[in-house]
């Protein structure tokens, strides 16, 4: 039975600060025989917001994990879907909006003392912590890449009126302003000002 050899060292996991909860998965029931698979479904309530400034998974949101854990020779391969609600602010009209983000994960977590663990940097391949997998850094990284830098409330958000700042979605399509083109506005200012305080030579114009 292959699990026997490692059981002594694995007792340390019991006293480790991490436990099988939240984004931390305990893989002991999976074992380490390559090819062994286990389904893992879990709903995790976020302790803090995850994401970007304008769009993020809010604190207290429920993140759905629908994963497969597969033991491979160097570690545990985690694949599957992560689904979470998002909240944000439209980068075009500045209105708050909510949505959903879905991530497809494919991530190897290397066993402690595996060849992969010893021949890679820890920012290249995630590591297991004894028998535990901590998905939180994976999800934080992946969500940061998945979410748009300039989120929109709707794909065709019309944004704000450049003249008065009203949201075009509520202003209506016939919203507009009787404002002169800025170039003409400049000329108009010149035209009204020139008779009064125009050039001092105006009165001395020999053509008058
Ligand atoms: Zn918008
Ligand atoms: Zn306007």
3D architecture notes:
This protein has helices at residues 7-14, 115-119, 136-146, 168-171, 182-197, and strands spanning 24-26, 37-45, 50-51, 55-57, 62-72, 75-89, 96-110, 126-127, 132-134. 21% of the residues lie in helices and 30% in strands. Strands 2, 3, 4, 5, 6, 7 and 8 form a 7-stranded mixed sheet that branches. Strands 1-9 form a two-stranded antiparallel ribbon. With 208 residues, the chain is α+β, with helices and mostly antiparallel strands. It folds into 2 domains: 6-146, no CATH class; 158-198, no CATH class. It contains 5 helices and 9 strands, in the order αβββββββαββααα. It binds zinc ion (2 copies).
Please write out the topology.
Layout: H1 7-14, E1 24-26, E2 37-45, E3 50-51, E4 55-57, E5 62-72, E6 75-89, E7 96-110, H2 115-119, E8 126-127, E9 132-134, H3 136-146, H4 168-171, H5 182-197
Parallel strand pairs: 7-8
Antiparallel strand pairs: 1-9, 2-5, 3-4, 4-6, 5-6, 6-7
Give the tags.
elongated, binds zinc ion, alpha+beta
In a few lines, what is going on in this structure?
With 208 residues, this protein is α+β, with helices and mostly antiparallel strands.
The H/E string reads HEEEEEEEHEEHHH
Per DSSP E runs of 2 or more residues, the count of β-strands stands at: 9
Biggest beta-sheet profile: 7 strands, mixed
Question: What is the average per-residue confidence, as pLDDT, rounded to a whole number?
Answer: 84
Q: DSSP strand (E) fraction?
A: 25-35%
C-alpha Rg, in Å?
31 Å
Structural class: alpha+beta
The backbone outline, from C-alpha atoms, is elongated
Which hetero compounds are present in the coordinates? zinc ion
Q: What fraction, in percent, of the residue positions are helical?
A: 10-25%
Number of domains: 2
Q: Give the N-to-C terminal Cα separation.
A: 113 Å
- Supply the number of helical segments: 5
- Uncertain segments are 1-15, 196-200
Organism: Nocardia bhagyanarayanae
Region (Disordered): 189-208
InterPro entries: YceD
Protein name: DUF177 domain-containing protein
